[in-house]
UniProtKB/TrEMBL annotation:
Protein's name in the database: ATP-binding protein
Sorted UniProt keywords: ATP-binding, Kinase, Nucleotide-binding, Serine/threonine-protein kinase, Transferase
Molecular function terms from GO: ATP binding
SUPFAM superfamilies linked: ATPase domain of HSP90 chaperone/DNA topoisomerase II/histidine kinase (SSF55874)
Gene3D superfamilies: Histidine kinase-like ATPase, C-terminal domain
InterPro entries the UniProt entry points to: Anti-sigma-factor_SerPK, HATPase_C_sf, HATPase_dom
Key word Ribonucleoprotein present: no
Domain Histidine kinase/HSP90-like ATPase span(s) in chain numbering: 47-137
Amino acid sequence: METLPRRLILTLPARGSAVRTARENTEQALVQWGISLRHPTIGPALLILAELVTNSVRHAAALSPTITVILAAGSDTFAFAVHDRDPYQPALYGALTNGSNSGLGTVAELTTSLGGTAVVRGDADGCGKSIWITLPL
């Protein structure tokens, strides 16, 4: 992430409107960065982002009044993370291997099908987490 030259950080209230705001701001950033919204990775990436923000709103709002979305891109990579202050760390790939129809199963399946990676990282203080997605462009 540190090596990607283009970055944007959004802090959003943990409400349903955060999903639309995150998507719209991500689309604007991608256009400004010269990444076509018609690139085959971008549609699925926006779906993944929306699912992660939705999960934070649904499951973490009580402990996390705000959600942070971090976007970064380089010439051949688009990466993003959704951070909240709920310490629960879901097993992304467990959702995929267990045949789950959950949103996290969709996140894992889409990320894998695009040749990307998904990682859950806990905060140093143990009171929050980020889910990081890295996708090739």
